[in-house]
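Working notes for the structural subgroup meeting. M.R. asked for a predicted model of this chain before we commit to crystallization trials. I am recording the input and output together here so anyone reviewing the notebook later can reproduce the run.

Input as submitted:
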Amino acid sequence: MDKHIAVFLVVAVIVITIAWVIIAWYNFRLKKRIIDSGPVNDEAMGFLKNLSSASNTESLKWGCIIFAGGLGLVILQFIPYPEDSALPYGLEAMFIAAGFLTYYYLVNRKPKQ
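Returned structure, recorded in token form:
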């Protein structure tokens, strides 16, 4: 892998991780502030439940996508292809799409509440 691409990927992963931590921290602070403000009505409780349930499916989504992407990279290691071929990009895109479809199937299979 080109050194410039590797540096870009490392920086991108660090920035995304920092953004994810900040978003999680502010969601926590928002929930805490709503609960500490006193009696909570039904509308606020529904909002808090939506915040919590969205994070559960988000973890499932990213788990499926990262697992499928990693599986695609492992399979690419065993397939011979020319250096200027588009095969790795297409195969990796197919595996990531399969991860999204798996997530979609798992979420829609759950009973609606």
